[in-house]
Amino acid sequence: MHSMLSTVFFSYAFFLCCFARDTITYPSGLIGNDGQETLVSAGERFELGFFTPEESTGSRRYLGIWYYKSNPRIVVWVANRNSPLPDDGAAFAITDDGNLQILDRSGTSYWSTGFESTSNPAYREAKLLDSGNLVFGDTNNTLLTTILWQSFAHPTDTFLSGMNMSENLKLISWESKADPKEGKFSFQLDEGGTRFVIFNDYTVHWVNGESSDFFSSERMPDGMTNFLSNTTGSVPSLNSSYTTLPPSDNNTRIRLDVEGELQYWNLDIYTNWSLQWMAPRDNCSVFNACGNFGSCNLYNMLACRCLPGFKPTSPESWRNGDFSGGCSRSSAVCGKNDTFLRLKMMRVGKQDNKFEVESETKCREECLNKCPCQAYSFVKGEINKQRDRQPSINMCLIWTDVLKDLQEEYSYGGPDLFVRADTELKAKSCKPCGINVIPYPLSTGSDCGDPMYLSFHCDNSTRKLSFKTQNGTYNVTTIDQDTRTFTIQDKDGDHCNSSTGGQMREFNLSLPFKMIDFKPRCDTVAGNLGSNISSQGVVDIVIGWEPPPEPVCTSSADCEDWRNSTCKNVTGNGKMRCHCNSNFQWDGMALSCVQGGSSRKKKPLSLIVGVTIASVIVLSSIFLYTCILMRKKAKRRESQQNTERNAALIYADINYKIPGLEILERRQGIGFNGRDITRNETANLPVPKKPAFSIRRGFSGTASTSSKQENLISPLSTVSEGKDGEKGGAKATGRFF
């Protein structure tokens, strides 16, 4: 293997200096990964070589085929799409085992035709044809060539003339514009071989032929279908050239892009590629984009909504933007309130039955009498323009299965679609306007809703709902009864074209309406086939409405739908309303008379009562605890006072009974006697820490009784005997500590 590589690399330098070629042979015809040499088809239609994707930021290299001298490069086939080369040390050649391979210098294979080894690799060669097909064959030293392998049988994301879209062939998108690795979208025939399908992984993304006869624009053009079926192609051959193929087909290609869009391109006389057709053309063209019974609208802020009488199968998924679960009926089909909603400008999937019918009434009865019937459409026959001028056949289309692929405001027209639904509306609610349910109190006329809310208009010809303001009339896109809001839409060209766009605009709304939100956005809207795709600014304005007062009435019959109410004039202004009876009051949010006040107010009232009771309990506990603490403090204070009082009594009693105390009082002039102590026994006297006096004996060991009593104490100073100076007299000193 290594010697073979050395040989082919050496031979490569010789061929590089000689001429461009369209064939690889063994052992000298390799293509290096340095970008210096490529294969070019004989008619200079296609080129083969190594490349790096235009938008790639890395250095990964791939072997591919592209239109010769296309700028930017239009790649139609990639060999090693899932195994990129990390560097330029590789080559594309026929190896010793007879296979066509991409090898690096170490001998590692990044791509191979995968045949068993042959003993005669010299008889094998690969050739790039003007059809863009790389053909690998074995001549076996004869004039007859055996085709072993061809790139047309192994396409990547592009279909070229000469291919055949059989059940075994499919296109797989690139992962991104910078990476040719296999992406998540694929295009192929279904298992029955009757329909072309685009898959998103394992989910159907788009189906050709699902729409009814009235929406043929959704289907592939006949020329494209023939092109895919190889009705104009040719049999591959090593000797094929550009002249053996119809020029018109060689200027056509079909590509599946990274977003799952199938594109039909054509090369004009100015050598410019123009897009002739694509599918799905927008988000609503995706197969069953909003699920069963879900309707898609390109122009709404929220693309999907359920038909009247239906609700989201999974409300949580619906709120998160996942509409695949679709909608389900609010009540069983064949209900007591079954009626038919007339939907105009609607696209719908292909009908299940179609038969001749005399009139629309017969078609309606046919659907109404069969429970499986979900919808019908009456198609009136056109006047035959032949000589006899006989009318053509009237047709009745019946849908017995779930309704799929519904789209509002479908610009390509179609017959009126009558959908069977149980639309039991609240009292005085207006009839649906197209797909819009108009709940009470909103009003489109004097016979429904509340006069205060009469700002809506339903166009019977288009079945579109509009809202009238002092600023103008605007299209209503959605109504949400639960939040009491609706959305209107207006164009806002400045928002997408200048920095000053998208400002909050003034709306002169009067009660009961008020603006809630303002959401400018830029939408990409595709026009008719062949037209350019342009961006237009739109603004979604969310408006809310206040809960209504009691319903207006003219007689008691008008109040039959409002239980527990009576038609009367309470305010004296001449306006009659369905006022609630005694013990009932009007709840504008519940739209009914409720007992004991609004049901919506009972919960807050009970909450208030509960909080009040809890607060009283807490406050009472705090008050009781405070009282207990104060009582304890009072008892401690009373105990302390009793202790101090007892100490004072003891102290006074001691002083009262000391001998000679009266003599001391008499000498010092102190009026302190037992009567004073008794008189003041209730005083709060402090308990002394130490005695306020002390007794000291004189140095003499004897004394008379009288002198002992007289000289016992002096509370302020040292006291001595008088002038006589008796011997053996005692001294008494008293001091404060």
Automatic annotation (TrEMBL):
GO terms of biological process kind: recognition of pollen
Residue span, Bulb-type lectin domain: 23-149
Listed Polar residues bias regions: 701-720
A Pfam family it matches: B_lectin
Entry-linked InterPro entries: Bulb-type_lectin_dom, Bulb-type_lectin_dom_sf, EGF, Pan_app, S_locus_glycoprot_dom, WAK_GUB
Keyword Endoplasmic reticulum: no
Molecular function terms from GO: ATP binding; polysaccharide binding; protein serine/threonine kinase activity
Gene3D superfamilies linked to this entry: Bulb-type lectin domain (2.90.10.10)
Sequence intervals crossing the membrane: 605-628
Membrane topology: Single-pass type I membrane protein
Signal peptide: 1-20
Disordered as annotated region, ranges: 698-737
Sequence ranges assigned to domain Apple in this UniProt record: 334-422
Cell compartment(s), UniProt: Cell membrane
Gene Ontology cellular component list: plasma membrane
Keyword Heme recorded: no
EGF-like domain: residues covered: 280-316
Catalytic activities: L-seryl-[protein] + ATP = O-phospho-L-seryl-[protein] + ADP + H(+); L-threonyl-[protein] + ATP = O-phospho-L-threonyl-[protein] + ADP + H(+)
EC number in record: 2.7.11.1
Keywords: ATP-binding, Cell membrane, Disulfide bond, EGF-like domain, Glycoprotein, Kinase, Lectin, Membrane, Nucleotide-binding, Phosphoprotein, Receptor, Serine/threonine-protein kinase, Signal, Transferase, Transmembrane, Transmembrane helix
EC top class named in words: transferase
Name assigned to this protein: non-specific serine/threonine protein kinase
